[in-house]
Fold these 4 entries.
Entry 1:
Amino acid sequence: MKVNIITLGCSKNTVDSEHLAGRLTAAGHTVTFDSPNNNADAIIVNTCGFIGDAKEESINTLLQKIGIKTHGRKARRLIACGCLVERYREELRSEMPEVDAWYGVHEWDDIVASLNAENTDTAARRISTPSHYAYLKISEGCNRQCSYCAIPLIRGAHHSRPIEELISEARKLVAGGVKELIVIAQDTTYYGLDIYHRRALGELLERLANESGAEWIRLHYTYPTSFPEDAIDTIRRHDNICNYIDIPLQHINSRLLKSMQRGIDREGTLRLLDMFRAKLPDVAIRTTLIVGYPGETEKEFEELKEFVRQARFDRMGCFAYSPEEGTPAETLGDPVPDNEKQRRVDELMALQEQISLEKNLARVGRTYRVIVDRHEGDFIVGRTEFDSPEVDDEVIIRRPSKDVPSPGSFIQVRITQALENDLLGEIVE
């Protein structure tokens, strides 16, 4: 069969789709990812149900694929799976009877069996990212109880994967050409508590640095409460671990953080950021924030803006709060109007763009090691260790007339110009 897998949402979903693709490929099926062609025998949509916009995108994608299936196109089967299905299976089934099958986040074996691939290796994987980087998912589920978040309701309790299993997968990825491993989970800092009865992220990073063969290792999705300080020590010791921390902080006001059930207050957050920068002076910190949480006052929003001014994050994203069914925050209602939420998003992001430009201007004239991601016309596009693929800044370099570096290559680049969200540079011979 020809199978097209459409992946929506986060990088954790990407890894799920890649393992599914690996097993289907091993069974002899031809698998494509997000193919625009409509000639597949089966289409699998791996949905996202995290926030309102993601739900809407998932539903619209399913409706589009239903149109392909029902208007004489080749697709004979349409399968929906993933987070949105886990939460709303029965409602979706009644609204979209044209979808042939519905599978939640723990039913990958059932999808595989339905496509006659049940005897394949459960560890098989075909990456959908460019071949030089891949995500390494170290755990599943989440034990946090953030008031606004439905992930524990969807994915269940935290479950760490054993270190030996992760080292084995990392080595296979590197042997297949991966240069950069991006460590992910719902909460990477919780890693190890369930199976080792201790926070083992630092130990895992140590072994990945020493044993995986990866040239870059990047840490995502950390959590501020009880952050394992030894992980920062490990990053400092190893040149192949990027000076990069992704840590969604959500807010700075202590009252709101308490309502969000984040387990940390303003002072604790500031101490954590000070620790990062004291131990890793060149660290790039990426965060995400929520505005319009129920009861957020204008004064509390201004406190958040001042925090962003002072913290000077290297990278930042911002979301407007959306109530999620079954979460504690749902009982608080949604009193902040949508237009007010959007104003706050726009103001924060405008502030961050100015900070990003100032930080990028400070890089002009300096030389960095850059990984080449792709070629675009007359240009090479890459990243420094301070930027993660798809979400952060890129370095744009004029393509040389000869000896053009291929994607996955590392090159030395002198930065010649700075923009708000990109750097321009030239190759240093």
Entry 2:
Amino acid sequence: MLQQTRVAAVIPYYDRFVERYPTYDALAAAEEQELLGMWAGLGYYSRARNLQAAAREMVRLGGFPREYAAIRALPGVGEYTAAAVSSIAFGLPHAVVDGNVLRVMARFGAEGGEITAAATKNRLREAADAFLDAAEPSRHNQAVMELGATVCTPKDPQCGRCPLEPWCEGRARGLARELPVKSSKTVIRRVERSLLVVMRNGHILLWQRPPDAAILSGFWELPEPHQLPKAKPGVALHRFKHSITNHIYQFEVFSVSAGRWSPPEGEAWRWVPVAGLAEIPLSTTARKALAGLAQGNLFQSGTGVPSVNF
């Protein structure tokens, strides 16, 4: 859950998740729609699917693996997670390499390569492995990560407080503030999009992404104008922003009044009762759109969201 997500945002989800799935057996047996509903709002939903796939592999194995290669082989587990778990839980000598560690090692060795380049990362991983205290890998890994988070910080490294200062090549060469080398900033793209709210007799019209969708497979969405070409957007209900990597989306939510309409082929459409929205996995954009309507009491009063018969 902490991959790409802040601790403060994760805590309530974690508490609910472990209460609902207290063991890997329980997680392995969960229905996917329920699992995605429990995860909804955290984003990066492949993490939830990988977590369940890992739980099912643990059921097959009869427990959690205790060797690095077997941990690394679990679905969704990469080098960082495998090294962290194997070193901290089992005392195995594998260096953890996250963004903080990459920065520490780049300054420590005065690495001049661009930090996101594969060759640079490989050199820094090798340096981290060579630097590792194999006798106490757990304490060493946690110490280096903490050093990067609190002392060897991105913009204002506090070299005078650093226990590695006497041996740091970047400090000795006066390059600490210039390292690691980063490429130019990513261009941020801004995109305008619209979502449509269509209600009938206490139900709202949603469509479901297919199981083989590249992203958010199985999640429910509000329609967009191109999906309902005969729809005539009416009242503008509210606007909200949604950011994904280097894109900032500005969504405007409209009520809809339209003539007769048939769902496009290849998409699963459903009239979902408003009272049942919490029971299905909604995309983050759909949740934001509907949360804005709920705050305005539009569901309760019906104001601005007409009842439409298609």
Entry 3:
Amino acid sequence: MAKIQMKTPLVEMDGDEMTRVVWEKIKDILILPYIDLKSEYYDLGLPNRDATEDQVTKDSAEATKKYGVAVKCATITPNAQRVEEFGLKKMWKSPNGTIRSMLDGTVFRAPILVKGISPLVKGWEAPIVIARHAYGDIYSAVDTKVEKGSKAELVITKPDGTETRTLIKDFAGSDGISCGMHNTDASIESFARACFEYALSEKLSLWFSSKDTISKIYDHRFKDVFNDIYEAEYKEKFEALGIEYFYTLIDDAIARVMKSKGGFVWACKNYDGDVFSDMLATAFGSLAMMTSVLVSPNGYFEYEAAHGTIPRHYHKYLKGEKTSTNPIATIFAWTGAFKKRGELDNLPELVTYGEKIEQAVLDTVGSGYMTGDLALISDLPEKHVLGLEEFLNKVAERYGEL
């Protein structure tokens, strides 16, 4: 069987720990036998990020701008413990945060629904798609320790050189910490339009939530931008499709989500989207069952798994022990990238390949063959727990039958 020939490379961003192992095995078993893979490879493993002063992360983002489609493995965002573990030069920023800031856009995360895995929230009947703003806020923040007796101020220097100063806190009685973060109207507008366009394309209602009652300028700006764009550009389109847009406070949104039937897009600011996408992934089945794609207003697409690097499995793997690591979200990152590459390059066979691999995954799990994490929550009467390679080979076998 001749391999599918690609026209334009994908940007391939390798990662860390167990997901790096999963990455290689997916390529060996599900990709390279069927596709003449063309990729521009970047090693975003933590040791290489440290060795290159994190330049490799920036280079991978620039390559995504060049080629338009990227696929990314999960990576470590180091804390103090990781700095010591890896002997790092410094506590490097989140590679996802760096890439998202350079590409702008919105991260859409949707659960992968499969036969035999029922949502923990019994009322959910359809997927809830998280739309996460992928720029600014705490991910691009500047923070610092503050010595007792100091004052922290927010200083804005205007174009004419004049300054305005706002007292954040007088640390007269104690040492402390302070943080400064930002966003831009341009990025918020791109976020809003991406959400409205996605909702229209999927014919889903759109919710947006923040905390404007407390953050009366920062969060209120998000609320106003969404409302103004909706009223001026999308209201009639939404009404024609019978879908709605509404804003509510983040705490009210939580209550509504838990009582809903699903089947809508939930737009969140950067941190909220980070947290609630993991919550939804787990509630719908597993963190390893959540797709994630960064959609830039400039036409760039970056696909990744929504979960982390699975260090517990990695330590078992290093000891030579068998792991039953769930590779599904990483498989869907690759297939999403291949389908988009095929769409942009007018290669229908590449799109079909991606669709068939995804169907093979769903068929494999739906027929009772799955990794250990899914076996624990599956309500199928007969289940067979497979190791990582066994599962990938089973998917390949099913793909060959489609």
Entry 4:
Amino acid sequence: MKIVIDTMGGDNGSNATVGGILKFLESHKDVEIIAVGDEQELEPLKDKCKIIASSSILPMECSVMQAMRDKQSSMYKAIDALLNENADAIVSSGSTGAFLSLNTLKVKKIDGVLRPALITPFPTKIKGKYTVLLDIGASTENKPEELAQFAKMGQAYCKAVYDNPHPNFYIVSNGAEEGKGTPLTKEAYQICKDYEGFKGYIEGRYIFNGDVDVAVFDGFTGNVFLKGCEGLAKTMSLMIKEAFTSSTSSKIGYLFAKKGFTSFKETMDYKKVGGALLIGVNKIAVKAHGNSTPDSFKCAIEIAYKLAKHDAVNQIKKEFVQ
């Protein structure tokens, strides 16, 4: 297996990506890593990876034209390596907009896919059970037919990654009744009515109870929802920490509750997911968190590895055979 890594562009630069690659390689001898970036910064990877030098980094607020024109950027050269080396996957923590644009324009959409989506598993209250969310920000406006396709791609993802032969899916709305929602979700509901596994609408508060396999959003709503969840998780963690360090008695109480809170933290740690898959293009393209640490970037590579092992792209293609 070959995985291409764009090592530049994230908030923490090559410190996170190089560290993540080294951690990943400790337990994966069956993978060739192709690392693209500044040769000096990639020195620790010498003799462990194939290194491709690049001379520039695409900014986070990168336009489509800028991404396409800067052929010396680490991301552009990584996409080229993905195609030229016939690699299985690419991982980057750089500009989301540039990553989506370059993959869509150069790697191209799977035949029949109207619009690729960003998809990610998110932890639920049941340890080890994830709800798959999409679209979480590949686009800001969608058509009803695109939401219906997101559902199919989400189900294909569940089948490939979680060996779930009959995943259910819901459209996220402001109520469970059929008459609820926006014109977009109402029309998508009618399209999905006869789809296998469709369970109707679901309110955001019920998504993580462990019963939902796939939750379908338009890209704008999904991105707002995901970032809200991440912010809430971080705030709750800080509030719990403050509560248990506010007095001597609370510190003693924490000692008794520590095991439970450690388990809670592990269950709800979204960073273990590592990143999101751009689903609907002809290669596995994983967008890691922009603020990735070595551990979370390693998790992003693990996602790419697992999806390649499960032949996820071809699994998704099967859903769109005409």
